[in-house]
Amino acid sequence: MEDFKVQSVLLTGGDRGIGLGLVEAFLGLPHPPQLLFATCRHPDGPGAQALKEMSRRGSKGCTLVVLQLDVTDPESIKAAAQKVGEQVGGSGLNLLINNAAIACDTTLETEDAQNMAAVYATNTIGPLLMCQAFMPLLRKGAWTSNQCKMSCKKAAIINISSSYGSLSLVDSWGWKQDVGYRCSKAALNMLTRCLALRYSICGILSVSLHPGGVKTDLGVEQEEVSLASSARGMVEVLSRLSAHDNGTFLDWKGQVIPW
Ligand SMILES: NC(=O)c1ccc[n+]([C@@H]2O[C@H](COP(=O)([O-])OP(=O)(O)OC[C@H]3O[C@@H](n4cnc5c(N)ncnc54)[C@H](OP(=O)(O)O)[C@@H]3O)[C@@H](O)[C@H]2O)c1
To answer: What is the CATH number of the domain that holds 216?
Structure first.
């Protein structure tokens, strides 16, 4: 990862869990991004203290900007895009990571319309709205980059998905049924494919990434991988992505997950 330097990165759900882990992993790079936008719903709430402390401490060559953003609120997305646009100026945005998600512990018997709609609003519609709002900045990032080949250094959209969204792997329940969550991630994977189809011509990569089973508020009880290893692994995968990976579904080690 010695030569992995992305100019600007934005991620959602940066105040805890895997989002916060990714912030730490980016800050720990030999060459961290010049601008790292960690967005969260409540930047002034107690849950964002660790993130804000990281931002105050700063890091070599990286400005960590904490911004308010609720992926279910189009006005908050628009306001954040405006602020990011002002900071990145003509260079645009290079890397958008749609990480925020919710899950509710439901079964086929207990899932209901209200819950499923809320899960979709965050996990599937949220990433779509984010891509729409940040597309002008991503296009600018791709145009003005000195990279000719597709990569995260040029412009990329990473949707943090889950193996629970894989249609092929659903031959046992695994740790939970989580029906609405599974459906929302399968739909998110289709969004990744559509983005890859549409925006590769603009030099923008789109990939779905599974972080592994990580112990977080949303995640598994028995961890498959530690938070730090998952986050570092995902950043390493990001450093290697190329046109060959456009529209694929990979895990934190870079292994292909079947759709
Ligand atoms: N952990 C695992 O084992 C695992 C496995 C596979 C996939 N994943 C995926 O990894 C990603 C991160 O999950 P996690 O385990 O880190 O979960 P987590 O610890 O529950 O964190 C979820 C994050 O999403 C944010 N969020 C929720 N709704 C939001 C909204 N409407 N707008 C903006 N942010 C919102 C939360 O913010 P608040 O603090 O404001 O609630 C929080 O920062 C998710 O996409 C998840 O599906 C996780």
So the answer is: 3.40.50.720
